[in-house]
Amino acid sequence: MRLFATYLIGLIFGVGISISGMANPAKVLNFFDVFGTWDPSLIFVMGGAVVVTFIGYRLVLGRSAPLMDTTFHLPTRRDLDLRLIGGSAVFGVGWGIAGFCPGGALPALGTGRMEVIVFTIALVAGIFLAKFLQNRGAAKAASA
User: Fold this and answer.
1) What is the Cβ-side half-sphere exposure of residue 61, based on CA atoms within 13 angstroms?
2) Where are the alpha helices (DSSP H) in the chain?
3) Which stretches are transmembrane (predicted)?
4) How far is CA 132 from the centre of its chain?
5) Do the beta carbons of residue 42 and residue 28 sit within 8 Å?
6) CA angle centred on 49, ends 108 and 32, rounded to 5°
7) Taking the chain (144 residues) in consecutive chunks of 10 residues, what is each chunk's mean pLDDT?
């Protein structure tokens, strides 16, 4: 049942990204082109997502436990560190250059466009590189 729910949630997300046009990098890049071909539709997509998320969190966190687990798994850290700020900056710069974020690129893989495939390969490589560097740093800290 969990696998089906995960699939259904991903499908709804992917369809929403596709319908909104956010799988099209030109639409995203036009949002950043304020003095050129500016397209404000990204604001409305993000605004709608924030409203739905706000309401969803209020409803879900009002429950004693989630439907498919025994407890909620929520982050406990609230500090801003270099890794968080650096990762956010790299994400934003990459999004601004490529016009893709992971949420928009994965549904766009179905188009078979080479730039989506290259972006996704770079995304996966970046994930593995970050894990490698994280493990290397942890090993150095442990040996010191």
Assistant:
1) 8
2) 2-20, 25-32, 41-60, 82-98, 102-108, 114-143
3) 41-61, 82-110, 116-133
4) 21
5) yes
6) 65
7) 90 90 89 91 92 94 91 92 90 88 88 92 92 88 82
